[in-house]
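Bumping my old thread because nobody answered last time. Still need a sequence for this structure:
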């Protein structure tokens, strides 16, 4: 296996792993509108990089990759620029709080376990919630007189979104790209503040929390949520990368290698959203983060029980999950292109 020396962490690392992680994270990030850190950060940690360095390195890679994917989504009309730019206000405050929490936990020697438990809680929680939502709407669609996918998307987000839009705390905003005529600024601030905190705390671009938040709390259409999430991820990861770099927790060579392969993958992932939309994206997203949660759980179990088999399974499961979902997206893309070509 090819290896490369990483001078900041002072060890050799697999070049094949970095390239594969970058490409898969690029495809998944462009397709789901997320940074892909729920795969990359735990994967780097599982393969032997300290969690604080894994977080900082992944944030650097996410920043560069998200610029490319956001630009392509913008051309497709999938970015609510007003909403995405507003994310800076809350997310920077949350990001700083999360970063300080990680450095404090690292200082007292408890960062590894706490961050992993945080991952497991959110990965399984969000995965099960979105999978349940998909099944519920699939059953509704199969009933006589079922609604269209666009109407189902509105209903699934309707209850929480309508409640939050009724909060009367000025100032109020209009977000026409997302189909929102009125929502309190403070609702947006709180949502981005929380996602910023988890971005700094767990090394994620915030996307795996922000995407469902945009869909279920704000009520954005799925494709607009994907593009807007990427814009927010880009802005949050830029700040996170800067602060972790100041703390000396970014392995620049590893981030650069992953970025090159991610640049290719993100173009493919964005293109695939033309052929898999709405609830198809939500289903794949829920499956993806549940699989990632399983891999983190296996790593935590190894840390507690020191059973070598568990560590081996955690390595193969995190890479297998990323490769499996990436392969499925590529297959759907190829089939979609072939079908479109046959109908033209």
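Sorry it took so long. Here it is:
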């Amino acid at each position: 296996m090819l290896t490369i020396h990483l001078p900041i962490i002072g060890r050799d690392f697999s070049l094949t792993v970095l390239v594969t992680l970058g490409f898969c994270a690029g495809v998944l990030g462009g397709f789901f509108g997320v940074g892909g850190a729920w795969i990359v950060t735990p994967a780097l940690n599982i393969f032997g990089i300290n969690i604080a360095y894994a977080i900082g390195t992944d944030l650097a890679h996410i920043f560069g990759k998200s610029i490319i994917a956001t630009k392509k989504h913008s051309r497709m009309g999938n970015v609510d620029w007003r909403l995405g730019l507003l994310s800076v206000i809350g997310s920077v405050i949350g990001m700083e709080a999360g970063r300080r929490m990680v450095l404090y936990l690292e200082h007292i020697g408890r960062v590894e376990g706490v961050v992993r438990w945080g991952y497991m809680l959110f990965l399984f929680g969000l995965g099960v919630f979105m999978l349940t939502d998909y099944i519920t709407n699939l059953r509704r669609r199969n009933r006589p007189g079922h609604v269209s996918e666009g109407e189902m998307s509105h209903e699934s987000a309707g209850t929480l979104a309508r409640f939050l839009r009724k909060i009367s705390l000025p100032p109020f905003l209009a977000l026409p790209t997302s189909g929102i005529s009125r929502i309190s600024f403070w609702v947006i601030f709180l949502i981005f503040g929380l996602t910023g905190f988890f971005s700094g705390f767990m090394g994620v671009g915030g996307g795996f929390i922000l995407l469902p938040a945009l869909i279920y709390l704000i009520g954005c259409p799925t494709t607009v949520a994907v593009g807007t999430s990427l814009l927010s991820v880009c802005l949050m990861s830029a700040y996170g990368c800067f602060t972790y770099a100041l703390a000396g927790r970014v392995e620049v060579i590893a981030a650069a290698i992953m970025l090159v392969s991610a640049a290719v993958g993100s173009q493919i992932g964005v293109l695939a959203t033309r052929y898999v939309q709405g609830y198809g994206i939500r289903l794949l997203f829920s499956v993806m983060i549940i699989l990632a949660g399983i891999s983190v759980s296996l790593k935590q179990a190894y840390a507690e029980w020191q059973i070598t088999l568990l560590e081996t399974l955690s390595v193969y499961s995190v890479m297998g999950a990323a490769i499996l979902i990436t392969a499925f997206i590529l297959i759907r893309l190829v089939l979609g292109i072939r079908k479109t070509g046959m109908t033209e």
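The chain is about 80% helix and 5% strand. Let me know if any region looks off to you.
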